[in-house]
Amino acid sequence: MRRSIPAAAAMFGVAAALVLTGCTTDPSVTEPGDGEETPAEEVEWFDQALFDEQMAQMETTPEGPDGQPYLQYIDPEMIDTSAYVSEGAKKGCFANASIGNPWRQTGWITMNEQLKVLQEQGVISELETRDAQDSDDTQIADIDYFIEEGNCDFFIISPNSTAAMTPAVERACDTGKPVIVFDRGVQTDCYTTFIHPIGGFAWGIASANFLIDNLEEGDKVVALRILPGVDVLEQRWAAAERLFDEAGIDAVDYFTGADPAEIKSIISDELAKGDVAGVWMDAGDGAVAAIEAFEDAGVDYPVMTGEDELSFLRKWDETGLTGLGTVYSNFQWRTPLLAAQKIFAGEEIPKEWVLPQAPITSDELSEALAANEGMPDGHYARFGGEDLPGYPTIWQERQIP
Amino acid sequence: MSSIAPTAGRRIGDVALTLISPRGAVFLLLALLLVAIAVLNPNFTEPGQFMRFIQRVAPIAIVAIGQYFVIVSGEFDLSMGSLITAQVVIAGNLIGQDDSRSVPVLLLMLGFGVLVGIANGLLTTLLKVPSFIVTLGMMLALRGGVLFWTGGAATGNPADGFRQIGRGGIQDVPVLDYIPYSVIILAVLIAAAVWFAKRPFGRSIIAVGDNAVTARYAGVRVWWVKTAAFIISSLSATVAGVLLVGYAGVHPSVGLGYEFTAITAVVLGGVVLGGGRGWVVAAVAGAFALEALFTLLNFADVPSTMRTSIQGAIIIAAVAYSAVTFGRRRRERAPQTSPGTGKEPDRIEPVSPASARPTPDGTHTSNGG
């Protein structure tokens, strides 16, 4: 009798584990084209109004100075900043989510070069920066520190996550000083201006439409996703998944953590299963490993959408595959400092500053590569710092400030 | 497993018994997984495809071999994953596009691996800090060093010549079609590990894990034996790093979670946490079973959000199976002393099954978004 207790306990434990995962091991319920579990995901992240708005913004010609995309804006609702007009160099306080990926590093370098220019012009005295290293708690503490003891004339906040950072941003707003939010958003509009490229849905629309245009109905697309739960990344996939569905493309998605070993294994398994006609990525990190998996298997290159990261652009150029470099405009890192300059000068700025965001097409590839010659693989072609004094050495050496 | 007069029928019976015994459970699991994969996708049985599968498992299997020696000596090595990352980044940054630097940098990497192993071993044995803490600290120190060096982002890949070790192979081989270099390296290392485990020194590693006091009275230098086990594990992480930089390329997420995957593989192979019992080949089989499980889920079109949980549940089930069946067998023949090989597990604990594959920890989002 007693003997059976551990066995029963173990079986119960396993059963509980399976129930907890809310899943079944029966593969038949996960057939492609199922209407069962995908809508749950779409309900959560797909937002028809935002989708339509970003689709429209992609078609809109941005306003603002030619050749300076970091100062352009789409559909602006301009606000009056005359209340902030003030002479002299100002001290900025920057609460940064992290510099833990190549995209953020590139932007951070560009921002520092922009800062030098504004310091020379006597607009900004210094920019005190705290790096939250991807932690909500740290960033909340950073913002509160700035409010209490930072002696800041204005705040720049690049939120780590949307909901968690909202109260801290509101506290910064309560100081009455300009608050500039950029990149990821917050759930309040107390900020002076919120700067971001068009957005995740625009990414998903551009990349999915490219694959749909270059593939046939019923073709297989492997979607490589970094991780779940980050709104901008989820929006990219939500838009793409919707469009693939409508076009009859057979898309299967994986989470990779941007680990190239994992990406390679996933693609190899998919190739062992059958032809893979396209690869879709929610971020370009790891694109090279995905392409190499096709080389190692000795099959034709897929139609592929990566990012404007140079490692992908170079591999794309080398292999001559049919590709698209989707862009999440890196030059947005310049804009917050320039916005601060405008605010203290009393110039009108958009309340929501939507920067242009356009992918790199095969026609623009050689031009993009030529403009970024000598840049390291982790550099982003649309970094927008070509007219800054440190160009190109600073970015080539890639010393993280 | 102690048959005296084996007839053919008896032998088959023994094999069957071994397979359902905890010692053989991992081989049974592996066989079941491979059959399931082959059913879902017959292409898998083609020699070329199968070789590529082994190529992919090679790094984690090699890490499992290293972890086996540390665990069987009664310790843990949590620093292996971070060491792999560090070695991958070293290779990427120091070799660059210059093939001629391959050999010096390779030597440097091996030297660095030995140093990490010595540090882990001496801190554990001489300063008597539990290895769980020492290697956890080493894991954080190495990860921090990599972050400091790279800022957490990928740098360029090293020269293609160096990457061939992990990526290339011998083409157009009769029967097998294709033999990746990493498969050869894995085969050599398994043979070396089996041989080493049977040597007096290898046996003293197991003896130290079984009972350090007895081993010391028997004339074993415990501090040196354990330190050697840590050096072996650091060197195996280094070799895995060399293979991974070829197979995958340079990225700070390469190696992430490998220490837990390796511990899971070792436990799945019936090796006892706490030391003294276990077979190195079973640990390697554990690594193969984990990767086969991953591949099976890929072939079975399991939704991405459920993969990790299903993997965890299957691993718990497998480990629970061996724990339960062994518990029963042990009670049935309680008075028996431990068999000559001393490799039968008597208790098995699941370790962090959810980490069987490196899971993204959110620090590598490519875009700020």
Topology:
The complex is a heterodimer of chains A (401) and B (369).
Chain A: H1 4-20, H2 38-45, H3 48-59, E1 78-79, E2 90-96, H4 102-120, E3 124-131, H5 136-149, E4 154-158, H6 162-174, E5 179-182, E6 193-197, H7 200-214, E7 220-225, H8 231-247, E8 250-255, H9 260-273, E9 278-281, H10 287-297, E10 303-307, H11 310-319, E11 323-326, H12 335-345, E12 349-350, E13 352-355, H13 362-371, H14 393-397
Parallel strand pairs in A: 2-3, 2-4, 4-5, 5-6, 6-13, 7-8, 7-9, 9-10, 10-11
Antiparallel strand pairs in A: 1-12
Helix pairs in contact in A: 4-12, 5-6, 7-8, 9-10, 11-13
Chain B: H1 8-20, H2 22-40, H3 47-72, H4 80-95, H5 102-125, H6 131-150, H7 160-167, E1 169-173, E2 177-180, H8 181-198, H9 200-210, H10 212-217, H11 222-247, H12 258-268, H13 280-299, H14 307-332
Antiparallel strand pairs in B: 1-2
Helix pairs in contact in B: 1-2, 2-13, 2-14, 3-8, 3-9, 3-11, 3-12, 3-13, 4-5, 4-6, 4-11, 5-6, 5-11, 7-11, 8-9, 9-11, 12-13
- Rg calc of chain A: 23 Å
Q: Which sheet architecture does the biggest sheet of chain B show?
A: 2 strands, antiparallel
Question: Given the helix and strand composition of chain B, which structural class is it?
Answer: mainly alpha
Strand order of the largest sheet of chain B: 1-2
The share of residues in helices of chain B is 55-70%
Poorly predicted sequence stretches spanning 5 or more consecutive residues of chain B: 334-369
Strand content of chain A: 15-25%
- Mean pLDDT value of chain B: 83
Counted beta strands of chain B: 2
- Strand order, main sheet of chain A: write it out: 3-2-4-5-6-13
Oligomerization state of this entry? Answer: heterodimer
- What's the total count of β strands of chain A? 13
In N-to-C order, the SSE pattern of chain B is HHHHHHHEEHHHHHHH
Overall shape of chain A: it is globular
Helix content bin of chain A: 40-55%
Low-confidence stretches of chain A: 1-8, 17-43
Largest interface: A-B, 81 and 63 residues
Question: How many helix segments of chain B?
Answer: 14
Largest sheet of chain A: 6 strands, parallel
Query: Averaged pLDDT of chain A, please?
Result: 88
